[in-house]
Amino acid sequence: MEIEIILRRLGIVSTYKGYRAAVIAVSLALENEDRLHSITKDIYAETARQMGATPSAIEKNLRTVARRAWDVNRTDLERMAGYRLCAPPSVSEFLDILFNYIQRSRLHRRQK
C-alpha cells in the first residue's frame, strides 16, 4: 500500500500501464536491495514475468512513469530523492529514489 500512495502523490495513477510495473519493481527491490544493481536482469525480467510482458515493455512503461513523476510533481520527487534533479530521472534512478525513500520512512517510523 505504501508504494501505491507514493506513486499517486507523484501523479502516477492505476490507469498507467507502468503503475503496476512500478509497484512490482519497487517491491522486488525492497525484498532484495541487490536487485538494484542489475535492474535489467533482476527487476525488468521478473516484473515482465509477473505481468506477462516483455522486459523492454516494462522498461518503456517505467520510463513513462518516471517522466510523469518529473512532469507532475517534481518538488515531491526531489524531496524524496534528497537532492536536486536536473533532468527527469532514469528508470534506475527513479526506482532507487523510491526504494531509499521507503527505507528511510520505515526507519524513521521504527525510531519513534
Could you explain the architecture of this structure?
This protein is mainly alpha-helical and 112 residues long. The chain is built from 5 helices and no strands. The protein has helices spanning 2-9, 17-31, 39-51, 55-81, 91-111. Helix 2 (17-31) crosses helix 4 and helix 4 crosses helix 5. The radius of gyration is 13 Å and the shape is globular. The relative contact order is 0.17.
Q: Calculate Rg over CA atoms.
A: 13 Å
Helical/strand content category: mainly alpha
Strand content: under 5%
**CA-CA gap between termini:** 21 Å
Brief synopsis:
This protein has 112 residues and is mainly alpha-helical. It has helices at residues 2-9, 17-31, 39-51, 55-81, 91-111. α3 (39-51) packs across α4.
Main attributes?
112 residues, mainly alpha
Topology:
Elements: H1 2-9, H2 17-31, H3 39-51, H4 55-81, H5 91-111
